[in-house]
TrEMBL record:
InterPro entries: NadR/Ttd14_AAA_dom, P-loop_NTPase. It holds the Pfam family AAA_28. Transmembrane segments: none annotated. Residues 3-169 form the NadR/Ttd14 AAA domain. This is Putative ATPase.
Amino acid sequence: MKRYILTGTPGAGKTTILRRLAALGYATVEEAATAVIADQHARGDVEPWTRPSFIDKIVALQRRRQLQSITTAQHVQFFDRSPICTHALSTYVGHPISSALSAEIDRITREQIYDRHVFFVRNLGFCEPTAARRISFEDSLTFERLHEETYRAFGYHLVEVPAGPVSERVATIRTLISQLTDV
């Protein structure tokens, strides 16, 4: 089974691309951080990312979703972010890298969970705020660079998905997937 990560800055269109891939029949796994933020907001915590426990909640949900995805019969799966993204997030918000995050990165590396080719979805030139996304466009560019550096530091190869219409971005990914799975 091939598991591919979609990563990039907040607001780059990863979730939109993921949903389009799902509509085309691919197995997909949604981003965990947004779900954790929504859950914490529902509990009255308006800034959950300010607490180090936020990172461990993301890691736990990412792991649970990845393990649940094993039951799919699909040959190719797409994940909206990974524990490597969570490492970048932890660094960005100034939290120490927790033992849970380190252990999960060790596990996904040891078990070769994700393909080493990661789809890096480039920013669209803006970043719209949402309840979960409270970052300026300028700060999102810093976060984008941090993601690049983090993935490279862990030995992943970034495959560029340039800004453009969703249909073109999905076509780019599908073309690259056919090349990568034929290797």
